[in-house]
Structure formats: C-alpha cells, structure tokens
Amino acid sequence: MQQGTLMRKVKSKSWKKQRYFKLQEDCMTIWYLSKRTGKTESAFSISDVETVREGHQSEVLQSVAEEFPPERCFTIVFYGRRGNLDLIAGSAEEAQCWVQGLRQLIEPKSFPLTSALVSRTWIRDWFQKADKNKDGRMNFKEVQRLLKMMNVDMNEDHALRLFQDADKSESGTLEGEEFVLFYKALTQREEVLSLFQEFSEDGKKLTLLELVDFLREEQLEDEGTEELAMELIDKYEPSETARARHVLSADGFLMYLCSLEGSIFNPQHRALWQDMSQPLCHYFISSSHNTYLIEDQIRGQSSIEGYIRALKRGCRCLEVDCWDGPNGEPMVYHGHTFTSKIPFREVVSTLGKYAFKVRHPSPGAGGPGWVRIHGSGGSLEEEWSCWPPAVQDPREQGPWRHWVAQGASLSPTPQELKHKILLKGKKIGRLEDTLDGPGDEAPDMSDDDNGAEAEEERRRAKVRTQYGSALQKDKETVAQALSDCVIYCKNVPFRGFQEAHSHSRPSEISSLSEAKARKLIRDEGSEFVRHNAWQLTRIYPSGMRTDSSNYSPQEMWNVGCQIVALNFQTAGMEMDLCDGLFSQNGCCGYVLKPPFMRDEETLFNPSDPSSWEGPSPITLTIQVISGQQLPKVANSKEGAIIDPLVRVEIYGVPADQAHQETKYIENNGFNPHWDETLQFQLHVPELALVRFVVEDYDKTSRNDFVGQFTLAFANIKPGYRHIHLLSRDGTSIPPSSLFVHIRITE
Q1: How far is CA 96 from CA 17, 101, 329, in A?
Q2: Residue limits of the PH domain (predicted)?
Q3: pTM (2 decimals)?
Q4: Where are the domains of the chain?
C-alpha cells in the first residue's frame, strides 16, 4: 500500500487511534501519520528496536483482549526507557507481515566495521542523515554537516580533498559508490594498518605463518594457533583469491580485530563454561529488587514489563509483592505505597513465558529461576492453577526427596534444577512436613529478619504519615499450597553466624538490609565468607532508597553473598557491575564463586587479603590506543563535538579499588587517539571487575557520560582488542568502540 498500512496505535483501553505505518525505502526508518490530518506524527529507526512481541504481551493489549484477537496484536519494544508501541493490525496476515519483517531487520549481526568492510546498512544510515534535501546526492555542504554529526572537527581543506578524491564523476556531488569511497577514506585506521605492517613482510598481506606469529606473540594464543589462523582467514578475509592462498589482507585483519574473536571479552566465556554441578550457595545469582516497579518506590508504575526486561537481562531471582485486591483477586504492587497495581495472574503468565529467555541465550543454559513471594497471599490458593508447570509441584520434578533423605547437608545444584522455578518465602512448619504430611509443630511464620522488618516498617510508617491514614498494615497469611512449594529457600531470621551454624539448614535463607550487611562485613568479614560457603544470603536496598537508586553490589559479592538484589530499572555504575559479572557463562544468571569462597574453613577476609595465603598480586597493564565513532552526548547542542577521555575503574576487594584516566582529546569523537598506558595491581583478581568509561570532558561542570563496558577480570582476553561500548542502559551503541592493548603479568 503506497501510503502505508493502516493500524491502530493503542495507549489504553479507551485510547485507540488509527495511523498509517510505512517502512521507508532505506529499510532503516518507519514513519506513521495521522489518518485524520495526513501529517507525519513521528518516526523511529530500526536500530532503536530491541524486539517485537506477538499477541497480548503488554498490559495495554491485555486490556483489549476481548475486543481484538491476539493474532492481530503485536508490541514493538525499544531499547532504553522509551515506551513500547502497541499496535493492532487489520488482519492476522498484516500483523505477521510486520512482525516477521521487523524481526529480520533487527536480527543481531556481526559488529559493524570501520573500513571498506563497513556494513552498507551503516553507510546508508549516515547518507540518509546527511542528505538534507533527499535528492540521493551529497554536496560538500552536506558533507560538512555529516562530519559534525559524526563527531568530527576536520579542517575544511582536508575535508574538501577527501570529497574531491571520492567525486570520480566530477559532478560536485557524491552518490552510490562515490560515497562508499568517501566513507572508506574517512574511516581509515592508521593505528591498525601500522600494526598490520609490523608483522607483514611486504606490507600488503599476512601469510599464514605471519598471522600465527601475531596470534602467539601479541594475542597470546598458545593452543591450536595454526588452526585458529586458518579459521580467521576463512571467516574474515573478503577476497576469495586471498582466502585460496591462505593469506590475510589489511581489510581482513581489521575485520578480525573488530569481531567477537578480537573483542576484549574472551569468546569462550560467553558460552556456558563453568561447572554447574556445585550447590546453589556456591554461585553468585543475578537478582532484582521489587521487579515489578519500573520507576520509583512510592508512586512509580508497576508493570509486567519490569519482569520481562529483568528476565531477558539474565536475572534469575525476582520479587512478587502480592496483596488482596478488589473482589479478593490478588494484585502485585509495593504494599502501603501509591504505586500502580497489576493482577497477580498477569505476572504469573509473564513468568511462564519469559522465565528462561535471555537476550543472548547459550546452549545448555537455563539455571533455575527464583521467585520471592511476599505479601498477604490470602487468595493465592484460588489462583494456584495459573502457575507455570515448572513451579506447580517441584516435589514431583526436582531431586528434593533424595536430597531430604540424605540429610540436606548442602543445597541442590543448578544443573539438577535446570528449567525449574523455585519459590522463596515463608513456610508453614518444617521441610520434612511437606514430604510426610503436616505435623503438630506450630507454624513457623518468621519474616526475613528482625532488622529488615523494623526498617521496612519505619519506611511504611513514614509513608502513612506523609500520605494519610488510609494506608493500613495488612495481616499477612500464607496459602498452604504456596507454603508446600517453598522447599529450597525458606525465609528465616538472621540471629548471628554462630546461631546459624548451630541451627540453620542449607534449605534456609536470610535477608539482610544493605546497612546490616555492611556492618557484618566490617566486623565479621571472615565469618560472613564462611557462612556464605554453605548457606544462602539475600541483600536488599535500604528502604530509604525511594528513588530506586542502588548500592554497590561489589562489597556484598566480596564476602560471597549470593542473592544481591538491585533495582534493575535504574541505570548506573551499580547495574553496569551486575551486567558485567553476569554477561559470562551463557548469560544464565549464575557465576561460580572462586574456590576460596566455597570452602567452609576459609580464612579469606576481603578487608585484609594478606591474612589469606593466596597467590601473589598480578599487574594489569592497559594501553588505551584509540576510539572509533563515539556517540554524541544526549541533548547536546547542534554541531557540538565531544572532548573524550577514557577512565578505567577497578572494582573488587578494598585493596584493589582504583581508577585512572587518560587526557582528553579536543573536538574529536570520531577517531580520537590517546596512546596512554594505565597500570593496576590486583591482589584478588578472582573478584575484580574492570569498567571502561568514556566521558565528554567539561572543565566547568561534571563530565558527561558517553559510553561504557564492564567485565569480570577473569573474562579479559589479552592482546590487541576492541571494546564495543554500551549505553547508560546497557544496550549496544554500534559502531562505537575503543582499541586497546592488554597485558597481564605476575
């Protein structure tokens, strides 16, 4: 249809407007216009789209489920905090056409490359941005506009020379292949070419043996190097003739360095590479706090989107605060506050669909998911049938009968509980009663811990005082069916390490506020590490963090706390550390703790590494060489060009915490060169995380964030490597990257 596809844009049950949607010829942009006015309302780029969901997979589309069948409905999900776009097509066929078409366009591709091999999609995207009069040609004025948009402050004479060299037709404009030539000249990587020529005898190609030398000497590849060299040539050399001769050209060399194999992140560690047969308490577990909230803790919106985003990010431990709603229907929201509410049934349905889906799945992944149930729960018995099969009756699906019979000396393993959902919460009676039938023992209705309860009540009292007396504290009860499924993680109060060692079991878990945890770290660090070697501990944010801010998870991981709950909706350093730690091991949400943190007799104390007989410190040397196509600062003035600097931050035990930064480069966000060396000494590298941050220097105020990348030290691949930067929300911002040289010495 020439004018586009007519669909309904839905914002609420009562707000449904008809719009014409059309994919532009560039296959990169979608616009939609009003049926009534005929004016373009908005447009968005395909690169802004994270995924497309079919059917009633949003609260808005669920609210119109009786009016429109799921076959006609779909949701476009954008990166970052931009709201979703809910659409209803005129027919199931039209919906499928859009869903399948969009999925093909947004399917992940290899890293964009900055040379003649750069993806034509990216070239076309830049051309469309610079071609202001949309005539398919680019004059020199538009070239200057392009340079500004690309963060380049280039001398006008030099820019004119590049333009004239590419203008083979001498028409005074660039089009088609001429623009490709211009882009190639603009993105020439002198530092990579120099490295290439250092190992190439004729300066034009790397023979198989020369490539092997480079891989061994610089990339420190010591196993199967010749086979690896052949694989790289076959995979990245664009010339068929060169591939047949087993040589690598300069373009192929750059393509390798910009690939996953040339990334700072060890590609072998992206897959499931750790032992998953250890007890649950031997793993760090990706965990969220008040998962349903996507804004603040007092008046913020509750949404199933919070669960979907957290699960796709690799989160394994979720929270469901459930309270009796109208007509006895259980609702999920932050109790005793003014946050919005969502039906419990919708939350459970969402967990069933997304519990084991992540952004970058790996074969073999799928460790158990955890759901922390908290709240009144009085009507949960009636809603039990809507729980997904993985959680309905774990007694029939898990190893728990054998585990209980053996005395439950340690918790089960992620491998044994793969694709199961574990409930964490209060429990009526003992674990054995669930197996043998209810006994005469009085119900154990203890909450997480006395300190946690007191802090939470102080917060609620403050809210009740501020917003009126209408808020009343509900008496919490537990449904028997729910209690029966609390097996591997029963909430118990924390009364000290000695008490826990004498009376607690591996099937029990205590929750501590961040303040309580810090005090224990300060006063009893070694005891805390030993405790976490055999029992689970959950840490949650202070009740005073009503803005959904986060604490640093690193200090909690330093003592082996497994479930360190963060507000996933709040971007920043804390979530960068979380994403950095759990981006390994197939993004399964489980990371095996170092051996010395799995030993119940360990002497390790993060506050005093010298008290532990570990290996000698190692030295991490990072040469920050250059940057490529760094993004502009959000909301910057038109024509503004950044002054980038790179800061490297080390997070780990207190003795290893450090940061260093390069000088800033004036007016060059396109291809800045620093060539600066930063050096760090690490006493406990097993716990260290390395965060690379790019900022726009400002001498009169705080520097502006440009991009970042965080990873565990254990996942660093030494040698010449590219670091592909992420946005504040943790999403990719191709083709922005850093080029570095990494050395690790003892």
Answers
A1: 20, 8, 35
A2: 1-107
A3: 0.85
A4: 5-106, 116-187, 190-262, 280-360+367-438+448-464+481-597, 615-745
